[in-house]
Design a protein that fits this description.
It is built from 13 helices and 17 strands. It is of the alpha+beta class. The chain starts with a helix and ends with a helix. The N terminus is likely disordered.
């Protein structure tokens, strides 16, 4: 039997095993070039999160190729990727996943139980038809428009036909030409699935590049308002990222729940969307107390039930998650102190200063709702002919005031939570 024949038989057997293996992430399916690059044994180890052993095998492969005077630059890139995987596994975050949904990639956006308060996420043609009509080639790409409908982050092709992130701002009833995101667009690799948090600062997106650990990876960065630029993006750790494709990270502050999508262990046309409770501070899984296999289970999100510490509390959060806007509990009636502590009245607060911040936060939210409604009325009046200078100035002023009030609302909520936690932890 020739060496090539033996290798092909080994590869077929490996793929058959992977098609039925519970732990399998089908690592090789996401990048055809990488499928041909690595030996199937290495894929098997990666699929089971045995990154250290995969690195050992890869080192042997690099030595063998070097002896044959072959180009090993791409193998060295894979070594860096696997080293990042091994490092991330050792500091896997302890996250409570309250629910999951398997959805078709084509209707993922429309099926998610997210609050309308987060803004609009989805294909450009659904988020902003006006811009989509101008750029027909990108109308099906992912985009995000904020809750006051004056800024949209969208995916566009650059001069090399690579997906990159751009931003367009609304000026009255017109949209500015999409501009690159300073600090992000120029980074190597394709980019998509943008999401700006309500604070107007924290920004998530996905990118497929040699800087990550899988196919598409989730990154987070912060927007420097005064300088109109983003700080250097950071790669999220496990369990959010994996050797598969991970993307579409969103934090629904109105419901207090985050979510992201992944195609790990999924059919080619499907994704799994996981819903989780964001941690106020990062907590890692203790490898020494749980053992390596348990840590791998957490990193892979092998079972969301394994992440539950209080089933009753998880069920409460699931109820909140799946309520639609019309029946959802008013966010002003919920004061989220931490994942396992939610107040429903200002009188529940122990700290007097936290109680005062809660009152201010409630009043600011009510003012924000009123200002948003008034702004929409003015915008409609402007679009339908009442384009006088005075109304134009009022709209621009209102947009600035709303942006400032959103920052204030987020700051009051943080102060409220911080003051209460200080008192109750004593």
């Amino acid at each position: 039997m020739s060496v090539n024949t033996f290798y092909n038989i080994k590869r077929v057997l490996f793929l058959l095993v992977c098609s039925t293996c519970f732990l399998c992430n089908s690592y090789g399916q996401y990048n055809e070039e990488r499928v041909e690059l690595l030996d199937s044994t290495i894929y098997e180890l990666i699929d089971c999160y045995q990154f250290e052993k995969a690195l050992q095998n890869l080192d042997e492969e690099i030595k063998a190729q070097t002896r044959l005077k072959q180009d090993v630059s791409k193998l060295l890139q894979e070594k860096e990727r696997l080293s990042r995987c091994a490092q991330m596994l050792s500091v896997t975050e302890d996250v409570c996943f309250i629910d999951s949904m398997i959805l078709s990639k084509t209707d993922m956006f429309s099926k998610l139980p997210l609050s309308s308060e987060i803004g609009k996420v989805g294909q450009l043609k659904d988020v902003n038809p006006l811009i989509a009509d101008k750029y027909d080639s990108i109308k099906s790409l992912a985009s995000y428009m904020n809750s006051i409908n004056d800024r949209i982050y969208l995916t566009m092709k650059d001069s090399d036909s690579v997906n990159k992130l751009y931003v367009s701002n609304r000026l009255l009833n017109e949209w500015t030409p999409p501009a690159p995101l300073s600090g992000i667009t120029n980074i190597e690799g394709s980019q998509s699935y943008p999401y700006m948090c309500a604070d107007g600062v924290t920004f998530y997106y996905s990118s497929c590049s040699t800087l990550g650990i899988g196919g598409s990876d989730i990154y987070v960065t912060r927007y420097v308002v005064d300088e109109d630029r983003f700080l250097k993006p950071e790669l999220l750790g496990m369990p959010f990222n994996s050797p598969a494709n991970d993307y579409f990270y969103i934090y629904d502050e109105d419901k207090g729940v985050g979510c992201f999508a992944t195609d790990r262990r999924q059919a080619e046309d499907s994704v799994c969307v996981y819903f989780f409770l964001p941690n106020s501070a990062r907590h890692t899984i203790e490898v020494d107390s749980l053992g390596n296999d348990s840590v791998v289970g957490y990193a892979q999100i092998r079972s969301i039930k394994d992440t539950w510490k209080d089933v009753g509390l998880v069920n409460q959060w699931k109820t909140i998650l799946h309520k639609n806007d019309s029946e959802s509990v008013d966010s002003r009636c919920r004061y989220i102190i931490k994942n396992d502590l939610i107040y429903t009245s200002i009188e529940d607060f122990v700290s007097l200063s936290a109680r005062d911040y809660a009152r201010q936060w409630t009043e600011a939210l009510e003012a924000l709702d009123t200002m948003k409604k008034d702004l929409e009325i003015m915008r409609k009046a402007y679009i339908y002919g009442n384009s006088e200078v005075v109304l134009r100035q009022k709209i621009l002023k209102s947009e600035k005031e709303i942006s400032s009030l959103i920052i204030k609302v987020n700051d009051l909520e943080k102060r409220m939570r911080k003051e209460e936690l200080i008192v109750i932890s004593q």
